[in-house]
Design goal:
alpha/beta, single chain
């Protein structure tokens, strides 16, 4: 593995002050079973396969890739909503110091959940239709036994104002709101316990384009006001560029590139990143007509049977037989703070 992986194998108590989360060799596999009552495991879907990265306090790390590449699984495993198969997730808690989320017992995990929250992708499915808005937003406070009934109601009304809704909406039900308003309710619920770290799992992909900008601007304002750190997951590269400080690119369960936002968008090094950026539409028809678009051949391999060597070699335009199909590339730093997993990286100027 690369030098960056060696760095993250230090004593977790030595987590630098500017790092709020460190993910080390994270693996998540889903068993494939068959037979009577599905008792025999015959394989595994390798949804997340040995990835390592860090998130700095106060930043937004964007996580992008095609559908099925492991973005949402990474997010849910980091939060321990899914149990990791292997690896560590070190989180800097204000109350407990550095905690390994992957191995923490239920009591510790319950404590740090106040500081780690998530906003889900679908605002229509993530809100209980039988609960009022007040009950939905107050639920985290009730679960963690914070305050009394009146103080929780006061907090609900305060949060509704913070996310741009009226306190009068507290007694309404989710079906009475639009998609953008429902997502604001989901954001208010995530803020209820005053977290320091939030996972945003494609929070605007289910919304109309006109509403997406409003929600993204709200998230920007909340980050500045409350000092939040975001892990922002999306497949829309234009949205990711707008909100992220750094961007990580995943392909078939692996992280293939990680860099500062402008460096990755202007000078991508991995062939997969080139292809993703070439598909982003440009408003200027002259530039759109003249630029080169990279069309990847073939389909994404199934994660239950990933290719040997570099997982991208079956679709890569620069892959070389005997190297890319045999040796797995290490995740290495080719420029300051620009990490790439490729045997033959190249720098291209890209207009996005």
């Amino acid at each position: 593995m690369s030098d960056t992986v060696e760095e993250v194998q230090v004593d977790p108590s030595q987590l630098p002050d500017d790092i709020i989360m460190r993910v080390n060799h994270l693996v998540k596999e889903f068993p494939i079973s068959k037979g009577v009552f599905f008792k025999k495991q015959v394989g595994a879907v390798q949804a997340v396969s040995d990835i390592s990265f860090e998130i700095r306090e106060g930043e937004t790390l964007g996580l992008v890739g095609e559908s099925g590449c492991g973005k949402s699984t990474t997010a849910r495993t980091v939060l321990r909503l899914l149990e990791p198969t292997a690896g560590d997730v070190y989180f800097r808690s204000k109350e407990r110091g550095v905690v390994n989320v992957a191995t923490a017992d239920r009591r510790v995990l319950n404590d740090i959940r106040e500081e780690i929250q998530i906003v889900f992708q679908d605002p229509y499915a993530s809100l209980n239709p039988r609960m009022t808005v007040a009950s939905i937003i107050a639920e985290p406070m009730t679960v963690h036994d914070e305050g009394n009934k009146q103080s929780r109601l006061d907090r609900v009304k305060e949060l509704l104002k913070v996310v741009g809704l009226s306190p009068e909406h507290a007694n309404r039900y989710p079906h009475e709101f639009s998609g953008g308003q429902r997502q604001r309710i989901g954001i208010a619920r995530a803020l209820a316990l005053r977290p320091t770290f939030m996972v945003l799992d494609e929070p605007v992909s289910a919304l109309d384009v006109s509403i997406q900008a409003q929600v993204l601007n709200l998230l920007d304002d909340l980050q500045e006001e409350f000092g939040l750190t975001y892990l922002f997951i999306a497949h829309d590269l234009s949205v990711v560029r707008h909100i992220s400080d750094r961007v990580a690119v995943m392909y078939l369960g692996k992280m293939v590139e990680l860099a500062d936002r402008d460096a990755l968008y202007d000078r991508p090094m991995h062939p997969y990143t080139h292809a993703l950026l070439s598909a982003v539409p440009i408003p200027d028809p002259t530039i759109e007509h003249q630029r080169e678009r990279i069309l990847l051949e073939g389909d994404i391999p199934h994660p239950s049977n990933p290719p040997s060597g570099c997982r991208f070699h079956t679709r890569c335009p620069v892959a070389q037989e005997g190297k890319c199909d045999v040796d797995e590339p290490e995740f290495r730093e080719l420029e300051p703070d620009h990490w790439v997993a490729c045997h033959f990286p190249e720098i291209k100027q890209v207009v996005v």
